[in-house]
Design goal:
Oligomer: single chain
Shape: globular
Amino acid sequence: MHLNPAKQERLPQLDLFRSLAILGVLHVHATSLAAGGQAIDSPYFYWLNGINIFFRFGTPSFIFLSSFVLFYNYYGRPVTRSLIGNFYRRRLIYILLPYLLASIGYYGLTVSINQTWGRSPGEHLYSFLAALFTGNAYTHLYFVFISIQFYVLFPLVLRLLQTSRQLIRWIIPLGLALQWGFSIWNKYQLHLVEKGSVALSYFAYYLMGAYIAIHFEDIKSWLLTPWHQLPGQHKRLVVLLWGSWFIAAFIHMQLWYEGRHNGVWANSLWYELAWNVHTMLSALVLLKAAFLISRGAPRVIIAFLTRLGELSFAIYLLHPLLLAIYRRFRYSISPKSFTYVLFIYGGLVVALGGSWLIVQFAFRRIRLAWVAFGSVPRSLAPSQKPSPEHASIRRVKNGVRMTSEDSPKVKIEG
């Protein structure tokens, strides 16, 4: 194939996509205890369970976007030693280092909550390393761990796709085959409890992101063209996508409600299928929605969501800490009361707002904030001395912001 080393233009819509995905993550985490059984007898359980299941698109959408950004930036570029070295250097600084620090912090939090300080240093070290190398230091860190697995595989997958156009045609079915093959293998033989910490559990999203990135020029017009200017075939495609998404989401929510509330459980593969269909369609819907918002939403909404998207990785790392602190103040609120529902949404607001304020302050005022929270958005970088990433940012003649690498990815997907 012909490789074009020219850098891609930045896509501001991707920050909007990130904002929608992180809102999904926050809704799931805020309702996790209620939907998991704490509010099983509440008259509002159907609603709480529905919110918990509907918004499960967050992590799979981030994985899709991560892959999209990588292949959007790298597919047309020759795979050289310098490119791969720079790729891994950036991931080491802006992903692996924050993951290590977050794992240490959350391990200390769980030890404190569980009152297990009395264990020997050797036991703590073994327990921490086991959590670190499985993404289980806290419930949300598995996402960063599987992202690291994808980064390890990326140069190989990139090279394979660059050398085989035939393979590109089949990468989405291949991704589904790998993902489902692993799921079935695990169900009947491996029996891994933490299956979600293995990258194969998300390979369909990863390869779908690659496929759309490689063919982005072909679908860009579908994303950018207003509804009234779309040809009939494209309009039908939009209606089919959104309609299928709503139906899949409803089936997914209802399946879990019947199990959680009524005790009517199905074979686990049905839940896997419902989640897979719902969240793969969600990734496409969020991509379309991001371009719709970018084109038609009020400026204040776009500015709010853009900043949320820029901070999404850091918010992802920090918000469970604030949520854990907030939940300690529930006291005697009955899960059957409407006050409990307000308490649940209060947790969402505290987790989002508190994380946002802390991260934004850190990026503005603390020069080394990138060590804990990843790459700093250019708009928040300390004025005296920007972080290593932003030393490479420049402007091209047409005014579109570019970087020496990963131009659309101001924030590492989080």
